[in-house]
Design goal:
Length: 351
């Protein structure tokens, strides 16, 4: 995609989006509802048309504002959240729906795909006889049957039970990798994108604000909003003086920032350390953990694999949240000292 723009009522829903997806690669368009993800997918599929920009497949022009290959000739597979199976057709007939050619070849392809998703024994059943997860796998097989070079998936797992979803995602990913199609998956769930993607395109207000591998997107967010999208974030504000940002947790390096610039120091709850051993005296302020700051427990709850503890901080009354492995439930009103890992912090200009 090159410089795709789409407007509705004078508002840019897709704003100058460029993106390349390679064969065998899964790219997730990730972002909140209304950011332009599904519109982008519809433009690629050919069911909507951009106002400007071009789309190429295998270096051949598929669509600009004048020339347009019809959707059925774009070698694109589509999967949606409602699966859209034909209720009056059997599972086998659903998978075979988009196939042309001799009956024996069609039957062989249908059996191959249903076997790959573990549903060959349902070939003569109807969709209503299958569970939601099984219907999702039939929809995947149907989309892959014509061997599309591109696979577009719009929130395909959102209707599944949480306990089933991870298994279905993993099975789907394995089949997609075997087929070797270029996959573009739309989702608003960061966990899903992290689990499935080779690269993530983070969208906001119609634009791709950050593009990269999941590890890089998570550990090097482009701004505070990007960091917040992936997880809870604690924010500590400080002022720059002499290329150092002064905070209640000590000084942070701020090279190139003018004096009096306000910065937001962001840290995830799992990297906020509770000082159990030092009784509040704290380590040397120049260490990786900086200077300890005192807070009072306002809430603690056990979440299964970890505990979440909230503190009201003495320095300004703000709330910080820490996660602790296993069970840790201090009483409300308990005073504890907190430290932050400097190497786990993100520093941004203050919002």
């Amino acid at each position: 995609m090159r410089n795709i723009v789409r407007e509705f009522g004078g508002r840019r829903v897709v704003d100058n989006v460029s993106l390349k997806v390679m064969p065998g690669q899964v790219t997730c368009l990730l972002g909140p509802s209304g950011c332009g993800k599904s519109t982008t997918l519809r433009i690629i599929a050919g069911v909507d048309m951009q106002d400007s920009g071009e789309i190429y497949v295998d270096n051949k022009l598929v669509c600009d504002t004048v020339y347009r290959v019809p959707p059925e000739r774009r070698s694109i597979g589509l999967m949606f959240q409602d699966f859209a199976l034909f209720p009056h057709l059997t599972v086998g007939q659903n998978v075979a729906f988009g196939l042309d050619g001799p009956k024996d070849e069609t039957r062989a392809r249908v059996e191959e795909l249903l076997g790959r998703v573990g549903l060959l024994h349902f070939i003569d059943s109807h969709p209503h006889e299958l569970s939601g997860g099984e219907q999702q796998r039939v929809a995947l097989a149907r989309a892959l049957a014509p061997r599309p070079s591109i696979m577009l998936m719009d929130e395909p797992f959102s209707g599944l039970d949480n306990r089933l979803r991870d298994d279905i995602r993993d099975e789907t990913l394995a089949v997609l990798k075997e087929e070797g199609a270029a996959v573009l998956l739309v989702t608003h769930e960061p966990d899903e994108a992290m689990r499935m993607a080779d690269q993530i395109a983070l969208m906001r207000n119609g634009e791709i604000v950050q593009l990269g591998a999941p590890y890089n997107i998570y550990n090097r967010p482009v701004d505070l909003e990007a960091a917040r999208f992936f997880s809870d974030i604690n924010v500590i504000r400080g002022k720059v003086k002499g290329a150092l940002c002064e905070t209640p947790f000590g000084q942070f390096l701020a090279p190139g920032k003018p004096d009096d610039t306000m910065l937001d120091i962001a840290i995830r709850p799992q990297h906020l350390r509770i000082d159990f051993d030092r009784g509040g005296k704290g380590p040397n302020p120049t260490s990786i953990d900086g200077t300890p700051a005192r807070g009072v427990v306002t809430r603690a709850r056990f979440m299964g694999r970890e505990s979440i503890v909230e503190f009201q901080m003495d320095y300004d009354g703000s709330t910080l949240r820490a996660t602790v492995p296993s069970v840790f439930l201090p009483r409300v009103g308990t005073a504890l000292w907190l430290m932050i890992r400097r190497d786990r912090c993100f520093v941004f200009n203050a919002e």
